[in-house]
Amino acid sequence: MIDLYTWKTPNGRKPAIALEELQLDYVAHPVDIGRDEQFLPGFVAISPNSKIPAIVDRDTGVTLFESGAILQYLAEKTGQLLPTGGAPRYTTLQWLHWQIGGVGPMFGQLGFFANRAAERIPLAVNRYLTESRRLLDVLEQRLAHSKYVGSDDYSIADIAIYPWVVAVMAGNPTLLGDARASRPSMDRWMSELAQRPAVIKGMNVLQDDASAGT
Ligand SMILES: N[C@@H](CCC(=O)N[C@@H](CS)C(=O)NCC(=O)O)C(=O)O
């Protein structure tokens, strides 16, 4: 049994999708970051950086924060969703790290400066908008040549990237326009992932929770 500490955000949805794909037993515990629950001592003991998601695997005693590490752990625990060796393994990890180091921070900062900052700072909005568009173009180019992002097999790289692409488009419709229409390979990939039962369930993690999502 795995305890998943999470919230209704792109990073929070990633391990939920993986747990559903891998059909692992888990319990999702809400950590409402809108109410600063990520700073409560009980959660900080699990996730010292005060960010969701985090997991505790009751079977192995492993406790982890950082969604990329969690995804890799779940893949290696089960021998699925990550090629076991050779170039496909490292290419998949490369794209996983691309999400963690690039897509998440850039899309996240665009969301903040375009939609939530008390002060409108055009330089910041333009900076993160330009970078977000560029990252979407990188994804389009990758998917024009590869069925999935990591390799020709669906993997934790797809699981890491998909919730962020959904979120950046939903959160910035005016700034990004119809981002899918001009990126047909990304559009094909998104349509396919959106139909996977595990993706549907993971994207809806905690939706029965009474609190509002983000
Ligand atoms: N690199 C981290 C990022 C985690 C992260 O930024 N989580 C956000 C929610 S999507 C969070 O917990 N925010 C609360 C805060 O910043 O106080 C990961 O991939 O797990």
With strands numbered from the N-terminus, the spatial order across the biggest sheet is 2-1-3-4
User: Strand share of the residues?
Assistant: 5-15%
Query: Could you tell me how far the N terminus lies from the C terminus, measured between alpha carbons in angstroms?
Result: 27 Å
**Any guess at the CATH architecture of the largest domain?**
Up-down Bundle
CATH topology of the largest domain, by name, is: Glutathione S-transferase Yfyf (Class Pi), Chain A, domain 2
Helical content (DSSP H or I, runs of 4+): 55-70%
Ligand types: glutathione
The largest β sheet comes out as: 4 strands, mixed
In DSSP terms, counting alpha (H) and pi (I) runs of 4 or more, how many helices? Answer: 9
Question: Which segments are poorly predicted (pLDDT under 50) over 5 or more consecutive residues?
Answer: none
